[in-house]
């Protein structure tokens, strides 16, 4: 069970109160005890009181089960007038306790420990299904690659499926497959992750295999050559065949001039072509080591058993004497101070796309408040239908059909804030830019409304619940944070950061969205005559400006 | 003294009781007995998996005969349009107010039209359940269908249509279905055509709504923090007002063009996207589970299938290749997808044929069958992730007539299949000589046979 917040709540909240006042509530408890099988009675009371407390409850954001508890207390209290006093006291007490507990931290049973060789282990129990998700995350991303070797981290990720001396070939895959599990891996700018999901009882063998391939990889040159072709096919499928992905790749390269965030994770094609056996092994030996890894086990497990197993399988890997060497520390992005634009014309574009990417702080570079503000800001801009950009671009001006805004804050050296707009026919890019600038100016001047804050808070707190329903999403949420330098306590307090956020914090965050630290991308069909668009657009832009002046004047 | 002890004991029992009451729900999903058939006072049936450990409710439902296959030919795309229009305002709320309510309460509400069925999905926090079911009831029973929203939705579907032409995969998919099914309903793209989309009026939407929303066709799955009694009242609130008339004749003249054929559409991209397939085996067929195991061996099991090993692992000709048994109601299919660089297209395709021929002729080995059976038995539990997936799964169980004990029986269905049966079905399922292939890309030596 995830929502162990409730357990804390019962163990330390109202029950403790009952315990302390046991002499006074004792006789009520007796009655309650007598009634405990008579659910009808409880249900009756529950229904009649539900409406009365609706307001109260929403005020304190109670979970349904705490509500049920309230009914029981109410039942106690209704038996004797003197207890009414305790009843109200209890309600207040438990409400504040409930509030603090529910929004204090989520997945509260999560625990972290570190093995002697420096490897961290995170355990998140979830007993709904007898299955475990086992993930190992290495602090090796595309940003750690040597110059000229872009794509080697991702290439190595592919190669790790080729076996070791003691478990050659596809022994690993066969093991996963014959128990009905699945496994895969992914590489990002700051990390590489391998994940498996198997029935619980196979966890020990799984750990043994994963620990084995952390240090004992064995490869043939031929395997490397074949796998390079697979990676090239992957690049063709994901990027070359897709103009939108090519736009993103170009924009990244333009936004970061020095920092390796500007290189594609999968690598430049000509550099992938030149990657070889030695490159793979060099990087493997440098970065695949226990003190550079975080293990995350989530599912039908208890902390103690994971602790034992991790000691046994990962604990035996030797500790290294030196620190993990990092290239990127030497590659610092100079100040961003120019407005850049990228345009891609392609026959296979059906609807023009406008994309803007801002270089902004990440959670770890500027702290929780800024990170959470940017998350909330993205939501306030994008929400459909009343988000500021959606309303401005889609509903009011009708120049776009879709707006998407996102903030990627779990990155080590800087975050990125992305606005993407699907243009309507006849609309032009400068109108989109103008509207975005207009909305930002308004935000900076007037700030966000209390309604918007409430909406963003509700969304974020609901996301916390929905996340706990989806093991892989929850695991990624925790692991990405840990991999980019945040603490477990910090991630667990994410809901609290959201609740404590003030409207002025969000307004302040707008100042990070400076045009000079951004790149703007245009994706359009090479079939469209852009000159024609220009004439049309100027007229519509002027019309709009006139309208707005009129409106502002009123 | 003894009295106090007595009271303390009672307090303790009470505490135990409370704990028992609230925390005894950590049962596992997979003991099939947990699925309850809930029937509301007005006769609406839902399959429920109660899971109170996370305070959310996920509802998934389908109208069995409401997919785009039943769109009138001159109004194809109407089911998809209906799906989008349902969340554009209902009851006393216009589209804006309706959308704002959904956003403010973090309620996911969406509808979609598949080929065979019309789907709905709703997810909410338990504490907003009243609100969420009310919005769902409004969307289904009292949508506003305003002209203004209709134009917006039409526009967005037209741009989706254009997008499907420019994305290699969906273009290849369209090409395959168009060639395989010709003018029969599966051959039409479920998103309609520019002409039919432009022709759809509000009257058409109302007619489609009447035709599709039939209680006799409704299959419902609910997962999450909700007790059966409470669910019953919601079920009545949302679904009891829908028409209880039987649907009109639901037979469609589906004709699968026999292979082999090859359809090619040229697109200037470095990698060709290939879809291949032919007639498959229905889930109601006695050979189904044997075929299911065979498909796992051929291309269903990622990382371990024959095609994956031969085409990706050994030769690096593709990034991924997978096959599946598509359970289309009127024409089940054996279906596969991969992509490969234009220059090596010929190698990949001849390798594919060779492999399929080999399995069709010789069948898989005894060991392959054993491993595939193990994989399928285990993966059933492993894939049970998240309430949305489970709710959808409950609906699938009803649509395909699998019975409420399917979660328990599945393992037996797989276990009962013998190696001989799988070998026998290989010759029946796999028809490498009948392969129907659609290609989008730019491999040399192919002639474009579709007008651009």
Notes on the structure:
Chain A is α+β, with helices and mostly antiparallel strands. Chain A folds into 3 domains: 5-104, no CATH class; 111-329, 2-Layer Sandwich (Cytochrome Bc1 Complex, Chain A, domain 1), CATH 3.30.830; 340-553, Cytochrome Bc1 Complex, Chain A, domain 1 (2-Layer Sandwich), CATH 3.30.830.10. In chain A, 54% of the residues lie in helices and 14% in strands. Chain A has helices at 5-12, 14-20, 22-35, 39-50, 54-60, 64-78, 81-104, 152-159, 171-178, 203-215, 221-240, 243-255, 269-274, 277-287, 303-313, 363-366, 368-382, 388-396, 429-446, 450-468, 471-483, 488-492, 494-500, 503-509, 530-553, and strands at 111-114, 120-125, 131-138, 182-187, 192-199, 293-299, 340-346, 353-360, 400-408, 415-423, 518-525. Chain A has a 6-stranded mixed sheet, sandwiched between helices. Chain A has a 5-stranded mixed sheet with strand order 7-11-8-10-9, sandwiched between helices. The model of chain A is unreliable at 1-19, 25-66, 94-103 and 531-539 (pLDDT under 50). By secondary structure, chain B is of the alpha+beta class. Chain B folds into 2 domains: 32-239, Metalloenzyme, LuxS/M16 peptidase-like (Cytochrome Bc1 Complex, Chain A, domain 1, 2-Layer Sandwich), CATH 3.30.830; 261-441, Cytochrome Bc1 Complex, Chain A, domain 1 (2-Layer Sandwich), CATH 3.30.830.10. Chain B has 16 helices and 13 strands. In chain B, the strands form 3 sheets. A 6-stranded mixed sheet of chain B has the order 1-2-8-3-7-6. The chains are: A alpha+beta (554), B alpha+beta (452).
């Amino acid at each position: 069970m995830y929502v162990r917040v409730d357990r804390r709540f019962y163990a330390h909240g109202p029950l403790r109160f009952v315990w302390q006042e046991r002499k006074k509530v004792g006789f009520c408890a007796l009655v309650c005890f007598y009634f405990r099988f008579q659910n009808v009675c409880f249900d009756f009371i529950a229904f009649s009181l539900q409406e009365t407390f609706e307001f109260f409850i929403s005020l304190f954001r109670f979970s349904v089960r705490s509500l049920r508890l309230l009914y029981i207390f109410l039942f106690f209290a209704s038996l004797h007038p003197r207890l009414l006093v305790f009843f109200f006291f209890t309600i207040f007490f438990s409400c504040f306790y409930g509030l603090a507990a529910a929004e204090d931290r989520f997945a509260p049973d999560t625990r972290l420990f570190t093995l002697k060789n420096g490897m961290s282990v995170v355990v998140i129990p979830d007993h709904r299904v007898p299955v475990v998700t086992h993930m190992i995350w290495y602090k090796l991303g595309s940003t750690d690659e040597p110059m000229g070797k872009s794509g080697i981290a991702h290439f190595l990720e592919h190669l790790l499926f080729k076996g070791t001396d003691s478990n050659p070939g596809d022994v690993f895959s066969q093991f996963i497959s014959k128990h009905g599990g699945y496994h895969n891996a992914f590489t990002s700018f700051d990390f590489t992750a391998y994940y498996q999901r198997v029935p619980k009882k196979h966890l020990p063998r799984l750990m043994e295999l994963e620990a084995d391939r952390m240090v004992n990889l064995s490869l043939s040159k031929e395997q490397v050559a074949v796998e390079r072709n697979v990676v090239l096919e992957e690049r063709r499928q994901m990027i070359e065949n897709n103009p939108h992905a090519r736009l993103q790749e170009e924009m990244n390269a333009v936004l970061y001039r020095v920092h390796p965030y500007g290189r594609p994770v999968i690598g430049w094609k000509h550099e992938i072509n030149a990657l070889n056996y030695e490159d793979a092994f060099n990087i493997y030996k440098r970065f695949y080591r226990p003190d550079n890894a975080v293990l995350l086990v989530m599912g039908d497990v208890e902390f103690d058993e994971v602790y034992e197993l991790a000691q046994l399988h990962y604990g035996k890997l030797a500790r290294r004497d030196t620190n993990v060497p990092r290239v990127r520390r030497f590659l610092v992005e100079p100040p961003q101070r120019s407005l850049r634009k990228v345009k891609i014309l392609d026959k296979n574009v059906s609807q023009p796309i406008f994309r803007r990417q801002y270089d902004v702080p990440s959670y770890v570079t500027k702290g929780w408040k800024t990170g959470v503000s940017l998350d909330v800001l993205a939501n306030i801009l994008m929400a459909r239908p009343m988000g500021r950009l959606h309303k401005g671009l889609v509903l009011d001006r009708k120049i776009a059909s879709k707006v998407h805004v996102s903030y990627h804050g779990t990155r080590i050296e800087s975050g990125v804030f992305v606005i993407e707009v699907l243009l309507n026919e006849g609309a032009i890019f400068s109108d989109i830019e103008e509207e975005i600038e207009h909305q930002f100016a308004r935000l900076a001047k007037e700030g966000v409304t209390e309604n918007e804050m409430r909406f963003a808070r509700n969304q974020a707190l609901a996301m916390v619940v929905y996340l706990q329903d989806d093991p892989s999403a929850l695991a990624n949420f925790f692991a990405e944070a840990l991999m980019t330098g945040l603490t477990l306590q910090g991630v667990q307090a994410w809901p609290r950061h959201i609740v404590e956020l003030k409207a002025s914090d969000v307004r302040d965050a707008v100042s990070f969205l400076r045009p000079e630290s951004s790149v703007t991308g245009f994706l359009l069909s090479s079939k469209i005559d852009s000159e024609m668009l220009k004439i049309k657009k100027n007229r519509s832009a002027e019309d709009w400006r006139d309208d707005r002046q009129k409106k502002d004047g009123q | 003294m003894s009295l106090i002890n007595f009271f303390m004991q009672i307090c303790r029992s009470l505490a135990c009781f409370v704990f028992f009451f609230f925390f005894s729900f950590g049962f596992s999903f997979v003991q099939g007995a947990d699925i309850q058939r809930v029937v509301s006072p007005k006769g609406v049936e839902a399959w429920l998996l109660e899971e109170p450990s996370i305070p959310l409710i996920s509802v998934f439902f389908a109208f069995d005969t409401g997919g785009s296959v039943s769109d009138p030919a001159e109004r194809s795309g109407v089911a998809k349009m209906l799906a989008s229009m349902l969340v554009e305002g209902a009851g006393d709320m216009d589209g804006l107010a309706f959308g704002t309510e959904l956003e403010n309460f973090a309620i996911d509400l969406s509808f979609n039209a598949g080929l065979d069925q019309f789907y709905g999905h709703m997810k909410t926090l338990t504490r907003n359940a009243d609100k969420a079911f009310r919005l769902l009831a409004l969307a289904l029973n009292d949508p506003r269908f305003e002209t203004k929203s209709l134009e917006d939705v039409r526009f967005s579907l037209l741009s989706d249509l254009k997008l499907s032409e420019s994305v290699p995969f969906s273009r290849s998919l369209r090409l395959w279905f168009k060639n395989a099914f010709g003018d029969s309903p599966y051959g039409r793209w479920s998103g309609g055509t520019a002409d039919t989309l432009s022709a759809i009026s509000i009257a058409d939407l109302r007619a489609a709504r009447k035709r599709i929303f039939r209680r006799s066709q409704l299959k419902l799955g609910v997962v999450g923090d909700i007790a059966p009694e409470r669910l019953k009242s919601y079920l009545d609130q949302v679904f009891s007002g829908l028409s209880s008339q039987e649907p009109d004749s639901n037979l469609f003249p589906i004709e699968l063009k026999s292979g082999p054929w090859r359809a090619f559409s040229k697109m200037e991209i470095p990698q060709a996207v290939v879809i291949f397939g032919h007639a498959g085996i229905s889930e109601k067929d006695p050979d189904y589970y044997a075929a299911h195991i065979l498909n796992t061996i051929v291309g269903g099991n990622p990382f371990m299938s024959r095609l994956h090993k031969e085409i990706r692992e050994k030769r690096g000709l593709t990034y991924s290749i997978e096959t599946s048994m598509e359970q289309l109601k009127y024409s089940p299919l054996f279906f596969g997808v991969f992509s490969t660089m234009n220059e090596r297209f010929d190698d990949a395709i001849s390798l594919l044929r060779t492999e399929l021929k080999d399995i069709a002729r010789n069948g898989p080995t005894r060991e392959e069958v054993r491993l595939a059976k193990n994989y399928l038995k285990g993966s059933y539990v492993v894939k049970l992730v998240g309430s949305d997936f489970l709710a959808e799964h409950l609906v699938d169980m009803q649509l395909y007539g699998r019975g409420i004990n399917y979660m328990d029986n599945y393992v037996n269905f797989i276990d009962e299949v013998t190696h001989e049966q799988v070998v026998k079905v290989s010759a029946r399922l796999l028809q490498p000589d009948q392969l129907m292939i659609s290609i989008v890309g730019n491999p040399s030596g192919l002639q474009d046979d579709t007008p651009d």
